[in-house]
Amino acid sequence: MAIAACLAVFLLYTSIAGGGRPALKPSELAGHTGEEVTLTGRVAKQLRGTPGAARFRLHDIKGEGAVVVVYRDALSDQFKVGRDISVDGRLKSGVFVGKPGTMVTKCPSKYTDKKTT
Amino acid sequence: MTWLTLAAGAALAMLAVVFLARPFLREPSPAEDRIDGLDPAAQRRLELAEQRDRALAALKELEFDHRTGKVSDEDYRALVGSLRRSAARALRALEPPELPREPYPPPGELDPPQPPEIPEPYPPPDEADPPTQPRIPEPYPEQSFGRDGGRALDAGRSSR
Amino acid sequence: MPELGQAALVLCLGLSLYAAGAGALAARRRERRLAVSAGNALLASFAAAAVASTVLAAALLRHDFGFTYVADHTSRKLPTIYTLSAFWGGQEGSLLLWLLILTGYAAGAVYLNRRAAPDVVSWVVPILGGVGAFFSFLLVAVASPFATQTPPADGLGLNPSLQNPYMLAHPPFLYLGYVGLTVPFAFAMGSLLARRSDERWIVATRRWTLAAWTFLGIGQLLGAHWAYVEVGWGGYFAWDPVENAALMPWLAATAFLHSVMVQEKKGMLKVWNMLLVTLAFCLALFGTFLTRSGILNSIHSFTESSIGPWFLGFIAAVAAASIALVLSRLTLLRSETRLESPVSREASFLYNNLLLVALSLTVLWGVVYPILSEALTGEARVVGPPYYNFFLRAFGLPLLLLMGLGPLLAWRRSSAKGLRRSFVWPAVVAVVTGVALLAAGAGSSIPGLVAYSFSAFVVATIVEEFVRGTSARRATAGEPWAAAFASLVARNRRRYGGYVVHGAIVLVAVGIAGSSAYDTVRQARLRPGQSLAVGAYMLRYKGWTEHRAQNAIEDRALFEVRRGGRRVGTLAPGKNFYPAEQQTSSEMAIRSDWRRAEDLDLIVQRFNPGDRSVQLKALVKPLVNLIWIAGVVFLAGSLIALWPDAREQRRLALRYREAGAVLRA
After folding, report:
1. How many CB pairs (< 8 A) connect A and C?
2. CA–CA gap between residue C632 and residue C597 (Å, rounded)
3. CATH topology of domain A21-115
4. Which of residues 194-223 of C touch B (CB under 8 A)?
5. What ipTM describes this predicted complex?
6. What is the pLDDT of residue B115?
7. Which of B111, C120, C372, C448 could form a cystine bridge with C513, CB 3.0-4.6 A?
């Protein structure tokens, strides 16, 4: 009983202390410049990037927001316009810089999972 | 295709209904229609039987642990007495003579000898009594929980 | 044809409702014939579900694209076995599989126990009927697999990375596990409803629980293995919500398996067990809810259908009703003995339970955290692998140690002397192993080193148990070693089967520790002729080839692998591109070195056509194959524990006969 109580307190503490990273949509990024967040959205358009850094526009899955994402790592095989992805990173000067190795691509059909790196 | 489907569906439904009605069709007017449950006496007996099995199993496990060295001699001596007493108590509690005495336990082996008829209000034997009253022989070191363990006590032959 | 399937589902729903309603009425009024009728309804619901399943399977095999489901998940060129596996490849079909297994288990459990405890079974029937009705309702009204359309020329096909034997078996095994947890739950609640205070329900469901737990464990290992060899990121478990969805009920079921032993032997933990079996069942439902509702940001996504709220409502109703029932029957659940000492086997079971449940709940907390934080603060926050890994170590390492300590402790209380005697040898083995590994360089990861040392301890205790048991048997029965060993295990299947399973868990722990705490990862962009060093290996990139297969274009990068200067082989990782499905799959190359017990994994992340270079990720994963080998050991141990024991059956039959509890045939 005592152990359970300790655990409960610990969990409550981590939640109140703000554990975890915010999980945001492109439209919600505005107030979070510089903060490390997990961004989720749908790939709207692939933009011209540089070798080693992919650049694409990410939309809200359901909604109007959009942001340009820069990702300095290999894109997964499933990455495509119209697919949903989530990636960790920070908003810097209006561009979302993704952390290498954190992009996860959802596949539209059931039961699949595709991770990069 | 559709009429075949309809026919198949209808057939299935009818089969199901018949199957559901089967108990009523088989016994249109039964002698009694109660679910056999446990009356409080039977419930109590079952609990006692479980307690007895638990106590005997614990005794056997203690023997095994002692034999394999997990429990030291002093620990064994300390624990076996009270375990034997609880086993005896449980056995005694299941005593009522009207119970059909199946092969378990073989009479005279695991049965505690009947204490003499003592009119109330003689106090029942308690924890502090030396464990001589119920004579429970050294449980066979067989690790099975089966009744063969009991039977084999007769001739000391090793059971399978 | 689809109409027949739909009709069968409607029939199943009707039968389940009858089983629930008439069954409850019969149980309450103790009417035998009505109860039998309700039981028959349960059996018939299985037949109805089977008919619906056959219709779907036949449509799949016929490539009948008039069925929307068939068109969405198969194509003409798909190999037959994968066409068949598309049955459970989507939302509706997987629900039908769940229903089929559920009604099958329900029919079996009720049929096998119909004479054993009719009063309990009379309540089990409406409970199982209720659950069946829920799933039938979903299939009939919310997500039917029998929707039709004008048939297109060809179907959408199955994602190529799912066309893999492990992915074939993974869902059925998981479902056999999830659904299997319904049976002990139903019997536990049925026992309470029938106002029984004995352990009959445990005896009746012991093997069901063990079997379900085994299926769930194997299912998870299959999924992890698929993730490792097919997905191409070098890992096998990512704490994704859907992976956690299977882990949580499995942990709760593990706790339940252990605490139920304490209840059987000591008459303790009765209330705890009732709550625990409810928790396990609700977590199983919650798990399947997670994978279907689209409510969480997961890389597995079914569809964001309206099915989520139904599940949530059902889980809430089940939890509330169960807790209310337990509270109303507390007098039946009084403990018969007390915990005498914190150093006893009962206590170690209790600690084991607390740790397992704590781990399960922390995983649950991590999973629902985004939802809760969004509801409370307006902003969703997620926790990542660091959170989960922290708690895995915090609770998992003590659990590992407990697996070794528990068997050493005696029931009721253990004296210092007794402990010392049993403790000494395994502790020495653990310390020696730890020191040796430290010298060999394993100090780079403290949790890894601790895991290895604890594992050594547990293995030593298991060996000690087997040796002591066998020699005790030899001494008393005079059998030679091999026969003594065999009869020892045969007479104590649960105990020694359990030890084998513990051995499997140790293998998993060692495999996880090795492959995550001591792995090496390197990434580089390589032009032809360039090399990359990873661990003790040197990889030289020779070039890339393209090969056109029947339905795919296969690009492979050739690597020469050297170790210690000597050439040990070539590896060709790459990618397949499937024009029909417009999908790319990563084909990683794995070289398993059995002597050194490590895997070398090469993954091509990108081909650069300009200069023929490749972006390569190379990993060296020590001991990872132990995890898969552990699966086999796990299965073996479970089978030993599950194996019917005629002696025990006789004893139990005798017990019930004596109490007058078994009635006319």
Report:
1. 116
2. 17
3. OB fold (Dihydrolipoamide Acetyltransferase, E2P) (2.40.50)
4. 194, 196-200
5. 0.82
6. 53
7. C448
